[in-house]
Amino acid sequence: MSLKQRIPLLRWSVWRMAVGARSFFTTGQFGDGREAAAVAYVLEHARPGDIDDVLATIDRFAYEKSLLINIGDEKGPLLDAAVRRADPKLALELGTYCGYSALRIARSAPGAKVYSVELSEANAANARQIWAHAGVADQITCVVGTIGDGGHTLDALASEHGFAPGALDFLFLDHEKSVYLTDLLSILDRGWLRTGAIVVADNVKVPGAPKYREYMRRQQGTLWQTVEHKAHLEYQRMLPDLVLESEYLGS
């Protein structure tokens, strides 16, 4: 890894990301076309039907072209291992972005049905192209919406996609950090998580989800069994981050 790759402030795409932060919070994209460029790069350079090569190509784009905010190649193996431990038949992700982490979930649990909830229609369209190129479009479904929309998306997951009490084996949180806890509690209220289900939360240190982390600490050994994995923010080695992996012990 080059010095430029290890230290994000040396990269122009990081500065452009900071400029586009306001756009990201309203549209789910940074406003400079990096997400569409990532799709084009994958379609041009990754072998069709090769999920490993698609993931590696996204990583290469994030290092060599423009920084992306998917979980990345350092923290990705933590996600992979948690998925394998859960051995899910049904997995849910909140926050699709370009579809990278859903690919990792699908690869680690090839027998699972994976659903990804994404607020941005544009991100959903981009992710679907990448999933199709990787050959897993029939395994991953993107639902455009948000858990905090008054129950509409939750109702759609239940009525259209078979989410039911005790049916959810794995949950990945990688969307708006301030709603990690409220969205998890909404899912708990539905009773979807089976006892032994695993929940993974990215970026708990940066940008940070302090309420979620404190909740998991308070519930340690009673409702949840949590391990905190130290890592770094995606695609660099300067800023530390935390990934929380929590096993649901049941109510």
Which tags fit this structure?
20% strand; 12 helices; seven-stranded mixed sheet; single chain; Rossmann fold; 251 residues; alpha/beta
Describe the 3D structure.
The protein has helices at 3-6, 12-19, 21-27, 34-45, 51-64, 72-86, 100-108, 121-134, 152-161, 180-190, 204-208, 210-218, and strands at residues 90-94, 113-118, 140-144, 168-173, 193-201, 224-232, 240-248. Strand 1, helix 7 (100-108) and strand 2 form a beta-alpha-beta unit. The protein starts with a helix and ends with a strand. 44% of the residues are buried. A seven-stranded mixed β-sheet has the order 3-2-1-4-5-7-6, with helices on both faces. Helix content is 47%, strand content 20%. Helix 5 (51-64) runs antiparallel to helix 7 (100-108) and helix 6 runs parallel beside helix 7 (100-108). The chain has one domain: 3-Layer(aba) Sandwich (Rossmann fold), CATH 3.40.50.150. It contains twelve helices and seven strands. The model has no long low-confidence stretch (mean pLDDT 92). Keywords: Methyltransferase, S-adenosyl-L-methionine, Transferase. One of its GO terms (biological process) is methylation. InterPro entries: SAM-dependent_MTases_sf, SAM_O-MeTrfase.
